[in-house]
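User: What would this chain look like folded?
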Amino acid sequence: MSIQAPLSSTYFQFATLNGFFHQDVIETDPVTFRYEDWSFGLIDRPYPTDPSYDPHGSKSQWQRFAHYVEDLQARSDAAEQYKVLFLGRHGQGVHNVAEAFYGTKNWDCYWSLQAGDGTYNWTDPLLTPTGIKQVETARLAWTRGLAGDKMPPPQSYYVSPLSRCLETARITFSELELPSDRPYQPLVKEQLRETIGAHTCDKRSSLTFLREKFPTANFEPGFADDDPLWLPRLRETPAATAARLKLLLQDIFENDGHVWLSLTSHGGAIAGILRAIGHREFVLPTGGVIPVFVRAQRIDGVPPREPDEPWEPIVSCPEPPPPEA
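Assistant: Here's the prediction, encoded as structure tokens.
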């Protein structure tokens, strides 16, 4: 099973522009790096536009970077785009706690295929108290960044359809002091979700439920009431996830002319986006955020067909395995 792009006469080729964020740099350790302590990771460096924009050195690092990015975009033609994507991972969910408790091997072969364990239910789970605290850390980082560092707020907000991401985005952004022309108006995109299939935590709730639970969220046209993608015995491969996320980026870059975008998603999905844009691997903790500076070049011709990689059948355990040592 694969998701292929519709026939088109052009497509975008993506590349990460390195050297702007600490997360770009190979020496930065994803395990120990704390984006909230480093102004989201923006590197202190000059830009070619500094002499004309900030001759007296009075602007913040983020103001100078924002001017540089927007100047590049303003001078680019229709065949080239520049965007900064803020990729945020949801806070800790019930399923994350369950996997840590049972161990990844037992989780993958048995517990992830169940709706819960009799104590907790992790089908499309919400955040734990710890997860809420992680997301509140992200909200505080945004608050400080907007007010103190003069960061540009997102112009568009994209969110995975899974409840933990909708809850994460709501806690992070809904109470920020945002300019009137950049309100928090999340758009839910089906393809922004986690690796699809088998794991019940990655089966989304119905549109009816999501609208009731998250009334301020907007859903893209054609969003089905029931989950059309989740399969109980097959799991999407990492290559298939990356191909799906590349198609999502094609859609966003084709239809959104804004420069500053927020995408609230999952560990596997963010890994797929990073792979699609040529960024180095950078594993985010729950609640983590990574900004990436992306150039997209429009290429004439039919987009290359992504490898039709079949989803993997799940190797399951017939009964609950003993706890890992």
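Residues 155 and 182 are 5 Å apart (CA to CA). If you want, I can go into more detail on any region.
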